[in-house]
Design a protein that fits this description.
homotrimer; about 140 residues; 5-stranded antiparallel β-sheet; about 25% helix; elongated; YjbQ family protein (chains A, B, C); UPF0047_YjbQ-like (chains A, B, C); YjbQ-like_sf (chains A, B, C)
């Protein structure tokens, strides 16, 4: 059994952002030389997500509105977590979008359907944060 | 390390549907002859889900109402993603229900609690769509 | 390839509770002697969750309010699943919080960011329920 590990670092310019990280994950997989196995990609911070969906700007605006409706950023004092911090909404938004994805690795490639793309979802950005890529197989 | 891969195809008669796919996944596991490891089952499309919950028709109607409250299908023009397509709500519903499940394989069986069943959740159906089963272990 | 399996049992004193189970999972990992691989931790019941977030009491109260807003416990008769049972809301809450986490194992440790902690999320407690830990690697 082989295993591979890499940390990816991101600093978004806005509080919230969606970044398509599929090409970077594909490079990791190539570097690992793993042909068959499972790839785990997870946010290492608890106010961001890794998820799979469509790379379409309209849909990303829909996600933003959807998340703001379910877990609005403001007013900050609606959340017990806020006070010293102001990011309670980011913890909730990340919960809806998910911490991690597990992807099948087949013949050295991400075993994806036609439109699957991996995104980093940032909900409390403008600082340096990490994503973990771990690949296990042979 | 052994690995096994299979695509399952589904065409639902309605836009939304929940299908219990546990027996099919159990057949895949038997076919793989893997005794110890991890099984990944994921939707290959971004408007459908694979999730684990109860096989109870009342609960499935509750899920339908719950998802329609959080991410209503209509009016279509409330979503920026719609226009050429009308399935923005399906992308959001799938996000709540999840893309994938990872299940432990122990002594050649799905290592499940008493009521766990695997469902395919379709949110934009009436066309042929795929689920991936990948099993890794030995 | 090595594999390790353990069931953890929990009985909460309240219908809903969040328990930090990270130390127990770390003991399992030590017991497994696995250095590199993947750790799956999942609720074996369909009205509870395993998720990763912050160990902060204010945030946990925010989660409680957030979940009650999206899937309120009462009135019980708003749900088709209820009647013989009264836990439809717990099935929905667990769906939002997630069934499982997959964690990278690196050099014999949970490969975590600075604030990641694993929680058992109970939504229909006051009875004995189980969590599965499965570790695969070498």
């Amino acid at each position: 059994m082989k295993s591979y590990r890499k940390e990816l670092w991101f600093t978004t310019k806005t509080r919230r952002a969606f970044l398509n990280i599929t090409p970077t994950i594909e490079e990791c997989l190539k570097e690992s030389a793993i042909q068959e196995g499972l790839l785990l990609c997870n946010a290492m911070h608890i106010t961001s997500s890794v998820f799979i969906n469509d790379d379409e700007a309209g849909l990303h605006r829909d996600f933003e509105r959807f998340l703001e409706k379910l877990a609005p950023e403001k007013p900050y004092d609606q959340y017990d977590h806020n006070g010293y911090e102001d990011n309670a909404d980011a913890h909730l938004k990340r919960t809806i979008m998910g911490r991690e994805v597990v992807v099948a690795v087949t013949e050295g490639k991400l075993d994806f359907g036609p439109w699957e793309q991996i995104f980093y979802g940032e909900f409390d950005g403008m600082r340096s944060k990490r994503v973990l890529v771990k690949i296990v197989g042979e």
